[in-house]
Write a structure and sequence with these properties.
single chain; 198 residues; alpha+beta; two-stranded antiparallel sheet; 6 strands; elongated; histidine biosynthesis; PRib_AMP_CycHydrolase_sf
């Protein structure tokens, strides 16, 4: 990867940081060759701070590091795109991003997986999800079977609203079963993509 640091008078190139999982843009910093090298060596995203006039590893004080996943340079070789895993909020204000956006996927199903993960930790008295998980994997799997049968029954009739509600119930409980087995929807999507590319 060749970066043309000479394009800018101060020798700093813009570095856009994107969350590897959600694809949200988290922040913009600036790098010189030394910051780029340190980022590659440590696996923690490091910038050149113009205000501090020194190298600055994101999270060096807060502990909210950006773990490097990949780096790419643009077609003009003067801007970096860094994909990272954020450990905690990115902005110094405590926000997820420097634009005060919530850092979650725009894909609602992936967002719903996060909600399921959180509800699983709640008290069974307060959460349907926690209550179902407390009954064990067999009960979760059984519930998927029940919802599948209910969907098939509704498919034979002409009530669109009932059919769609049963479809939603099945999909929700399918996500619960994936979680119970320690998997995410993305793993299933990856398999489908592989099959489609054949």
């Amino acid at each position: 990867m060749k970066v043309d640091f000479s394009k800018y008078a101060d020798g700093l190139v813009p570095a856009i940081v994107q969350d590897i999982a959600t694809h949200k843009v988290l922040m913009l910093g600036f790098m010189n060759q030394e910051a780029l090298t340190k980022t590659e060596e440590t696996g923690k995203v490091t910038f050149f701070s113009r205000s501090k006039n020194r190298l600055w590893t994101k999270g060096e004080e807060s502990g909210n590091f950006l773990e490097l996943k990949s780096m790419a340079v643009d077609c003009d070789q003067d801007t970096l795109l860094i994909q990272a895993h954020p450990v905690g909020p990115v902005c110094h204000t405590g926000a997820d991003t420097c634009w005060s956006e919530r850092n979650h996927s725009e894909d609602f199903l992936l967002y719903l997986e996060d909600i399921i993960r959180l509800r699983k930790q709640a008290s069974p008295d307060e959460s349907y999800v926690a209550k179902l998980f407390s009954k064990g994997i067999n009960k979760v799997a059984q519930k998927v079977g029940e919802e599948a049968v209910e969907l098939v029954i509704e498919a034979k009739d002409d009530n669109e609203e009932l059919f769609l509600n049963e479809a939603a119930d099945l999909l929700f409980h399918y996500l619960l079963l994936l979680n119970a087995k320690g998997h995410k929807l993305q793993s299933v999507i990856d398999i489908l993509k592989k099959r489609h590319s054949r």
